[in-house]
Amino acid sequence: MDSLTSNSRVQLAATAIVSAAVAATAILGLQHLQNQEHTTTPKRSKSVPSHDDDAPPKAPASLDHLPTITNADKEDARNALLAQRALAGSFDNELILEQLARNRVFLTPEGLDKLRSAFVVVVGCGGVGSHCASALARSGVGRIRFIDFDQVTLSSLNRHAVATLADVGMSKVQCLRRRLVAITPWVGFDLCLEKFDGQSAGRLLGNWEDGQKPDFVVDAIDNIDSKVDLLKYCHDHKIPVISSMGAGCKSDPTRIVVGDIGTSTDDGLSRATRRRLKLKGVTSGIPVVYSTEKEGEGKAKLLPLPDEEFQKGKVGDLGVLPDFRVRILPVLGTMPAVFGYTVANHVICSISGYPLDYVPGKARDKMYDGILAFVQSSEEKIVRREINIAPDEGLGLKIPLNPGDIAFLVEDLYKGKSVVTGLPTKLVLVRWRKPAGSALTRIGEGEDEQRSSTVRIRDLVCMTKEEAIRHQKEVLHGSKTHEDLYSRDTIELVEAKLKEAQVYEKYRQ
Asked: Which residue ranges does the record annotate as region Disordered (predicted)?
């Protein structure tokens, strides 16, 4: 009896197992057929152009007179063909919207439409620029222009967004297009294989072929001269731009912020760029991505070029272009990506109209105007004493300084502190020593006469207002010397600052 019961249980269990297996197979098979029906067959036949598997591979179409890709494979040819058909309209819009569905829900359909009709220029296609460009294309930006003169190297692969070993030796702009066209074939890519500078700005930042102006420009350049040229051009021509500062020697992603160019700190590239822009009259109005991370024991530092590298030739011969950087910067591969995605995030939200709630920087333009007025008053007192004009008589003295000069001296040269006491309140600028010659320059005669001060940025020091008034009274208008009022350390510090200011004077124009 027990054996019969046992056998029946075994049979039932075996039957159940077989039935479950058959059911599971049927369900999985049905799901597979449904998946094929819903995702592959209809959409491919309706929207995505098919490929001839037997067709020989062809190099993707090149733009702007660039050389063709010599190591193109069959996948490159398929991607290029798909992109050509997609740009011609043979790519179903429903598929594009499905690929961009997450962005569409987040930004709203109206916001995504703005992105899809936008034209963005990315200048610099290395670590930062490549990640930014990739994010822009994946997020739906319809037209992107890449500008870079450089090639992909082996050392690029630790931080570049899309480059592979197969891309080493290829221009960075071609590499980006080669890889991104396989992801977003409907995006229009325009490639400019050249170095950006002030003379080429108007052409490289010019309109798309149908006349569309850039909606945004991304600065991902690591050369200061080119960077300043780009930002000054965009500022003067009212082109929206965001600039990435230095990712080198940085390791803390939580310290990366977006702020105004006038408030960025603790970054050599940011500091140098900010100084140069201020001397050109640009004190604010440009958003930048920068790190507030400070140097510390054990952290990476920018080191000079090793001596053995100099033995290989002149410094200018070691770089890709003359006067371009030749050092290998210490870069943690993750940090350029964070910078690039932060830049892309700003561009995407700005174009689509999504709210940006960055912590506001401290507005200091009124302070600069006040300091400039103090310099004006101080110079007028010196000139009146020189030419013996009464205080109530009109002078009409002009000052050869602008708010950018004031911002540079106060913020960058003197670090927002008095050179005498280190106090950061009620700051002004005043001449350090009496004019060696006349403090007045005259041009013309009579009513057409122009009177201007001879003061230069190399003449001014930063003090509190109380300190400056005492300095005027006892040094500039009195008989006391610097040694009578200040310590030797203070005098040496001032002399060093004035020499530094003299070096930067050449960047004022």
From this structure: 34-66
